[in-house]
Amino acid sequence: MKPNLCVLPISGKWILPTTTTHLSPLDGRFGINQDSNNTDKPLCRTMKQLVDGTHDESGNWIPNSFCTLVPLSPFSWTERSPCQTTIVMMGDSHVRNLFTATVNGLRGVSYFTEAHADDAMKSRGVAESYQWVLNNEGVASDRIGIFSDTKENPPQFFDECSCRQVLRCLNILFLWAPTFNEQMIQFHLVPSNTALLIVEPGNAYEPTNKLDADWTEKIDDMMEEYPRLHLNTFHFVWGNQPQERTQALIEWTAHGKHAERKSYLRQDEIYVANGLQGRATFHFACGLGQKDTWSDTITAAEPCSDVTDTSQIRAIVTAHFDALGGIE
Q1: Are 80 and 328 within 8 A, CB to CB?
Q2: How far is residue 193's CA from residue 161's CA, in Å, rounded to a whole number?
Q3: What's the per-residue H, E or C state across the chain?
Q4: Residue 108: what pLDDT?
Q5: pTM tops 0.85
Q6: Would the pLDDT of 26 be above 80?
Q7: Which of 78, 127, 206, 227 is 20 to 30 Å from 9 by CA-CA measure?
Q8: Which long-range contacts (CB under 8 A, 24 or more apart) does 34-42 make?
Q9: Does 294 have pLDDT greater than 70?
Q10: CB crowding 147-159: b at 16 or more within 10 Å, else e
Q11: Stronger pLDDT, 289 or 105, i.e. the higher one
Q12: pLDDT confidence of residue 6
């Protein structure tokens, strides 16, 4: 599939390689075209292994440990999973960057920009969804959904994926919820079959409350109710927020309830530090309102590839790949 480069196409179909079809190699940062040095490496299992690494010249994140990351591919993410796999992301614009980079990466799009809602729309509830399906005829297709007013009118984010009708189904949902309270009032929107929940813990939207006790309790209760659910706390560490939050999050994820299904990632542990895109705001995806785009051409200070968020989502999924059914 070759969608246009500037925005998210609503839907599309994949062209699968055959004996007569030759597809161009994808960006190295996607991890699809692994070199011979990586073929014998096992997947990294812990975030500690994953954050100790560096980007190579192609943008691929290379851990220093003898292990590797899951490729950014819907076929890899669903290879050994049940017919449905669901990932939910909750947070502010930095998690929206993560969602956008994930979708474009799964689609194999090299450069892209993203638009975002205004404050009035965000206050009423905003969500974005992505669904990738491989049906019984071997045809892979996907669809994007953008939803507003989700607090008053919770929508159906995904089409039904019946295991009798599809071979694989990958659902990814982004919910705009930048504060502890915003997340708590939307936890009911997290589907019960969710395999991985990625949350931003307050960030600069919470300048005084280092870690909300009700928030941690509700997440622990959710993980108790859904024994398959895994959690990643995706911590934006810049801005005005309590210095004690980092240690509190590490303590809760590493030593609290269900620690074996939790992970913690500081966003500054995997990112491109010298890029122009994120220098002022740490938004590593190019914003549509700040770049010139015309007929699939993007005019920007540097390529809008979002190497940072691409590497971060690959690390998170690798750390929780067993939640997706990938490790027996």
Answers
A1: yes
A2: 12
A3: CCCCCCCCCCEEECCCCCCCCCCCCCCHHHCCCCCCCCCCCCECCCHHHHHCEEECCCCCEEECCCCECCCCCHHHHCCCCCCEEEEEEEECHHHHHHHHHHHHHHCCCCCCEECCCCHHHHHHCEEEEEEEEEECCCCEEEEEEEEECCCCCCCCCCCCCCCCCEEEEEEEEEEECCCHHHHHCCHHHCCCCCCEEEECCCHHHCCCCCCCHHHHHHHHHHHHHCCCCEEEEEECCCCCCCCCHHHHHHHHHHHCCCHHHEEEEECCCCCCCCCCCCCCCCCCCEEHHHCEEECCEEECCCCCCCHHHHHHHHHHHHHCHHHHCCCC
A4: 86
A5: yes
A6: no
A7: 78
A8: 34/68, 34/71, 38/68, 41/66, 41/67, 41/68, 42/66, 42/67, 42/68
A9: no
A10: bbebeeeeeebbe
A11: 105
A12: 47
Length of the chain: 328
Average pLDDT, the chain: 85
* Amino acid code (one letter) for 132: W
Extract the tokens encoding 145.
Answer: 């959904």
Q: Residues of the chain with pLDDT > 90: what percent?
A: 56
Which residue matches tokens 């990643």? 232
User: Which residue has 């960030």 as its token pair?
Assistant: 203
243 token code pair = 């210095």
Instruction: Tell me which residue has tokens 């968020």.
Output: 309
- The Cα–Cα gap between 49 and 63 comes to 7
